[in-house]
Amino acid sequence: MPKRKAQRPPSPPSPKGDASGAAKARPPAQPSSATHPLVDQRRVTAVLSGNSSSLTPVVYWMSRDMRVSDNWALLQGCQEALQRLHTANPADSAAAAPSSSAPSQPPLVVAFNLVPQFLGAGARSFCFMLKGLRELEAKLGQFNIPFYLLRGQPEDTIPQLVDALRAGLIVSDYSPLRLSKQWKQRVAAKLEAKGVGFQVVDAHNVVPAKVASNKREYAARTLRPKIEKLLPEFLVEFPNQGLPPIMPKAGQGPHPPPSIDWPALLAEVAEAGASVPEVHWITPGETAARAALNGSQGFLTTPRIAQYHVKRNDPSCPMGLSNLSPYLHFGQLAPQRAALEASKLRSRHRDAVDRYLEELIVRRELADNFCEHCPDYDKLVPGTAYDWALQSLEKHKRDPRPITYTRQQLESGQTGDDLWNAGQMELVRRGKMHGYLRMYWAKKILEWSSTPEEAVEIAIYLNDKWSLDGRDPSGYTGVMWSVAGVHDRAWVDRPIYGKIRVMTYDGCKGKFNVPAYVAYVESLDSAQQ
């Protein structure tokens, strides 16, 4: 990928409170969302308006953003629940739990739906996610918010929960991915006749995707100015330092959440997904995510952030990376929190912070934009803004390949390229590949596959199966950038690649110490994974 000029985002106001993000004391509950608005409603899309505003529970169907702190979707659920309480009994304050007037159901519950088979995910992804949810359940309890872990297809489980709780509103978090949209559409179809409201909240992007742009953006240079214009409005501190208000205590109702046997569930998932085992170099969960960001050895400590702008493209220097992508993917860390904390260091580490915010905000939100407006984001489909690349690939489709490899050979790292093999083995052993090397890795798959379509399929299969941040807009967009020129420009026409940008082994040797990287990967064993 070419060198890019780092852009300076506006500096957000310095948030108050503990810099580590740990809550030393619960904040006072807010009396009502009418007097204390929590969420900018430009983040909210009404899927179903519903006709119920009575004192029935609000259900936050959590999916992409699996955290308690810094979660706009959870805050929207709190806001709606408090508004309903205030409307039903304006004299009551949510700060004081009502006695005889206590509702039979809690005003807000959180539900997460566990799909048994999810795009080839193994124990690596499922266990990382479940361990984070185990922590989340305990944290929600501190705010009087029950947690339901559902199992099955969402179009079945979510409406069943709505019926059991007599809920009047579903709040969910936003994702641009095809399967997530299909789930929401199917759930909405079943809820519409019930008069239940349904809202989707963009809790993942600093600037909400629908606000940043209503069309597919050609490149970062076309999206960047739109985001920069809106950052002063959206890159702001969360209310209550990101913590939700404490919900009023209420009765459990006739359908309290079943007790979750976390050890048994984790054992079940580990066995079922044993072909892609867990990795142990990274600790899952919201607490670990915050420590990885700005704890005593976190990314934002001076020894690490100071290296970012000069070492981020050097796979032989792992400390030059943030290693936050698994936390961002599973929503255990809010990108907005990462941006706020990084911005505080800009006066000391200007180049590094600017470069990091470019990747964290502009590039990541560009990936959401691509997947939002290109439903076939994982396929080579004519009639798109990157038709120049597809036409070029088609022209060279029958070019002789010097060698081709099967998917099995690629997955096991059995090619004649030691750098590529090391990248694949880092992915298999650690669940993460250096971002710069991912581009080389995907481009070589194009060179070694019979067709560009096969290359896209293999690259996505390997990334989704082995990477902790697989099944993500950034992953799909990265593959399509490397293979199909998405968000790139045409280059000199070459065999096989056509006008797609080429990355070579010799080019990598000129940028970083290839033998050192290969030796690093070879040194990894099960204790280091």
Describe the structure.
This protein has about 525 residues and is α/β, with parallel strands linked by helices. It has a domain at about 375-525: DNA Cyclobutane Dipyrimidine Photolyase, subunit A, domain 3, CATH 1.10.579.10. It has 21 helices and 6 strands. It has helices at about 70-90, 125-140, 155-165, 180-190, 210, 220-235, 260-270, 285-295, 300-305, 310, 325-330, 335-345, 350-375, 385-395, 405-410, 420-430, 435-450, 450-465, 475-485, 505-510, 515-525; strands at about 45-50, 60, 110-115, 145-150, 170-175, 195-200. The radius of gyration is 24 Å and the shape is globular.
Write the layout of secondary structure elements.
Elements: E1 44-48, E2 58-62, H1 72-88, E3 108-114, H2 123-141, E4 147-151, H3 154-165, E5 169-173, H4 178-191, E6 197-201, H5 209-212, H6 220-234, H7 262-272, H8 286-294, H9 302-305, H10 308-311, H11 325-329, H12 335-343, H13 350-373, H14 387-395, H15 407-411, H16 418-430, H17 435-448, H18 452-466, H19 473-484, H20 505-509, H21 514-523
Parallel strand pairs: 2-3, 2-5, 3-4, 5-6
Antiparallel strand pairs: 1-6
